[in-house]
TrEMBL record:
Comp. bias intervals (Basic and acidic residues): 1-19
SUPFAM superfamilies per the UniProt record, alphabetical: PDZ domain-like, Trypsin-like serine proteases
InterPro entries (alphabetical): Chloro_Bact_Ser_Proteases, PDZ, PDZ_6, PDZ_sf, Peptidase_S1_PA, Peptidase_S1_PA_chymotrypsin, Peptidase_S1C
Family designation: Belongs to the peptidase S1C family.
Record's protein name: Serine protease PepD
Amino acid sequence: MTENDPSAHDPAAPRHPETGRQPAQGGWAGHPYGEQAQPETGGAPQYSEPSYHAVTGADPAYGGQTANPWSAQGAQMPSGPTQQSVYPPPNPYGQPGTSGYPVAAPEPKRSGGKLLAGVALVALLVGGIAGGTVGYFTAGSSGPASNALDAPKPAQQTGNAPAGSVEAVAKKLSPSVVELQVSGQQGAGEGSGFVISTDGYILTNNHVVEVGANGGQIRAVFQDGKKADAKIVGRDPTTDIAVVKVTGVGNLTPVELGRSDDLRVGQSVVAIGSPFELAGTVTSGIVSSLHRPVRAGGSSGDQTTVMDAVQTDAAINPGNSGGPLANMSGQVIGINSAIYSPQSASGGQGQGASEGGNVGIGFAIPIDQARRTADTIIKTGQAVQTYIGAEVKDAPQGGAELGAIKSGSPAEKAGLKAGDVVTKIDDRPIDSADTLVAAVRTRAPDEKATFTLADGRTVELTFGGQPVLPN
């Protein structure tokens, strides 16, 4: 016998108290099947290009035309989260149709690897007996046994949640967060929203409710189980913001709105919503980055929705769209709208969107921008988009290159020309077309800003505003 011989015995090794046998290799303290039974893996994991996906419960065509991975509509989703059986798997050793664990293991065959598995099983059983015997004598030599089950329950928790804790934020915000169930001719889905007034106004994402426009249905489900039909007041596809209103429901609790212009990377935040129809789900994390330009809608290649996002690692998933992102004072500082999710290795954009889940990179619309848009929608019934009146594309050397300039636009009045490359707006660097679009949409109409161009010139521009016509 050699040291590599699995049948070799160590004379000093412990023996079974009844049979006098030693354990097989890998028994007792080791893995019950020994190293030889461990599976081998081969090949490197396969990865594919990532894509951004909206965090709604479904994935419809955006605007009823091109497939839109950001939209809450389109692909049919199951009515609830996938259920897994709580029953044990079928019994491989019992009669057909039975389940659970076998009373006795079958006799091992006397050949090959199956004999090794049988011996390992015996070693595991022997190890359990020997361990129990040792434990019995050890316990007997040290006095009576102590059992946690015999100890009384601790005192019940009392008092309020500590200020500034996730628990305190959840307690403050949860009564104001609703699940929105939406259906229409193009499909059905679900998302989240939050109450902003006692008379029933609810703020959410456009991509959550757009399938319910033009004759669709929207139902709001509150934390206490109350349900109410909702109607769209107005929506803005360019900022992915919408306002709906419910009637016939009393005692509504509006959220407290914070501000997003003083957020700091690393500060703690809490997200609440209905991921995968699990209403009232609370998660926490930090602000991971600020001013992250993210395309959150429209067909591939356009800038229908580019938001100046707050990036967070708080877990958000399909169904969280429209829900609040809050600071530790319980003030809403953003609207959860999109997640970064690697595409499915076997599917395209649409499949990747439907399978997307949290990987620790989520995006929220800053509340300062959402507040301004929602206020305009409630007062006028439609949103107003901030614009400069110029086409834009990525400049080869970095920055945003202007294309055609609209006659009479703010860009023309400021003296901007086609071919100009914008590299900064006030103190904010502009490194791409999306960054320029996001920066412009965070500003209000009639605000003034200094545009710095690649050739060193600076231009003073006053932003314009134009009504948004939902598709």
